[in-house]
Amino acid sequence: MSAVSARPASRGFFLTFEGPDGSGKSTQIRKLAAHLESQGHSVVVTRQPGGTHLGDRIRSLILDSRTENLAPVAELGLMFSDRAQAIAQVIRPALDQGRIVLCDRYTDSTEAYQGGGRQLGSEVVRRMHRVMCGGLDPDLTILLLANFDRSLARARRRNDRVAVSGPNEGRFECEDEEFHRRVYLKYQEIAAREPARVALIEGDQPIDAIHRQIISLVDKRLRILTVTR
Questions:
Q1: 73 pairs with which residues across the strands?
Q2: CB 109 within 8 A of CB 96
Q3: Is the pLDDT of residue 159 over 70?
Q4: Are residues 197 and 7 in contact, defined by beta-carbon separation less than 8 angstroms?
Q5: Per-residue 3-state assignment (H helix, E strand, C coil) for the chain
């Protein structure tokens, strides 16, 4: 993805959250949404895969640990089918209304998990992004890279708990450590390649400390956006 994308003057603000499972994305999205709404902003929170009726069906297939023999390229295609639907149905309409969109995962996740973890490479993912996403890049991406071993352990414990009474979404957590290591390294590669878009927050820090950093980053970008319009 390019670091800077063309945007209509009236367009809202598109912010994505990235990071391996267990990095604390969901918690930080909830806290940021509450902060932004308290400041009078209109906020839409969505996730990928999911966020639409079609996307939720794709999510249940891709993340279910009982899904077997799904070819990596088929998995890649499903991810982008979900994304294209979310853009058409949720993200672009909200941005056209001048709203702030907070999205839990976007193309960076696909580059990390399918490009890195599945070893399909970055180029095929970035090419699919250009075709399927119509050039829609985030204005800002918050990348949370906590300690590798601890975040992976947290993700596996969480999915073990949820699987007892909720949806089975542990398919990626069932992958071996080398898979997750490739995901982690690919995220680092993305951050190094696109520092203007990707704000990297590393290490294990208290939830509120990370929240304060995110608020500072987002408020600064929104102030700049207001000035440049």
A1: none
A2: no
A3: no
A4: no
A5: CCCCCCCCCCCCEEEEEECCCCCCHHHHHHHHHHHHHHCCCCEEEEECCCCCHHHHHHHHHHHCCCCCCCCHHHHHHHHHHHHHHHHHHHHHHHHHCCCEEEEECCHHHHHHHHHHHCCCCHHHHHHHHHHHCCCCCCCEEEEEECCHHHHHHHHHHHHHHHHHHCCCCCCCCCCCHHHHHHHHHHHHHHHHHCCCCEEEEECCCCHHHHHHHHHHHHHHHHHHHHHHC
**60 within 8 A of 77, measured Cβ to Cβ:** no
| Residue 180, both tokens | 């997750």
Token pair recorded at residue 74: 């088929």
Task: Kindly indicate the confidence band of residue 227, based on its pLDDT and cuts at 50, 70 and 90.
Answer: confident
Instruction: Say if residues 52 and 154 touch (Cβ distance below 8 Å).
Output: no
In the chain, what are the domain boundaries?
13-228
**pTM to 2 decimal places:** 0.90
| Per-residue model confidence as pLDDT tens digits over 95-111 | 999 999 999 999 999 99
Span 171-211, pLDDT tens digits: 898 899 999 999 999 999 999 999 999 999 998 899 999 99
Residue with tokens 């909830």: 30
pLDDT digits (tens, 9 = 90+) for 139-158: 999 999 988 888 888 877 77
- Domain 13-228 is found in CATH 2.60.120.260: no
Non-local CB neighbours of 68 within 8 Å, separated by 6+ positions = none
